[in-house]
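hey so i finally got around to running the thing on that chain from the lab meeting. sorry it took forever, my laptop kept dying and i had to restart like 3 times. anyway pasting the input first so we r on the same page abt which one it is
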Amino acid sequence: MKPSGFAKNIEAFLFELTDVFRFIGSFFSNLFSKRFEYDELINQLYKTGYQSFFLISITGLILGLVLTLQTRPMMADLGAEAWLPNLVFISVLREMGPVIMALLFAGKVGSGIGAELSSMRVTEQIDAMEVSATNPIKYLVVTRVLATTIMLPVLVFYADLIAFLGSYLGMKAYSNISFPLFFAQAFDGIYFYDILPATVKTFFFGFFIGIISCYKGYYANRGTEGVGQAANASVVISSMVIFLLDLIAVQITSLFEI
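ok and heres what got predicted. didnt touch it at all, straight out
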């Protein structure tokens, strides 16, 4: 009896999931081996941050501004407009900032990594590195995954700051609130457990964006179609993993708040 199409899809998914875990194991084994590629890591940190800086800046500003403008009328009707800065800042800090910026990061950086490595695979540059006794995992994968893992939390913190300024501009458009008063209202009730879970999960977001994008690019199909498929798959799968990790993080955080 031949397996159905659904069974074949499940089987293919499990095989690929096994390959991903094997790829993660290869990443860690090369991460702690000798002769680390520091110069390439610095280069990837710069490229990763530089590619995302403008997009993160614009999105963070619009996020804080729009969220404030959309929420203000409702809070004003309830007579709780003074709570608006704190409400917006907690929303951005704990949930909206990390998730939205991670999705943008996956679309901008993840697709770039997938396309770059798949192009190197198609043009046999990776094969040439293996033949010349250069470890492509150490040089190409480890540096890029570390760059995404390090830079995404930094970019999220920066986006939170820009969203905070955007929220102030939204409040200033309808009131004469001073910046010191807005600052005090925004940070009133902000605790350590508001910052820690959001920061920790951004490291996981960055790691999986990097590892998935590198995996899809490193094992891309031959031919020019493989480049587009790798870039597209990097974004789609990374986005799904981000939502899954966020769901897990919310459940774990809720256990500690009970």
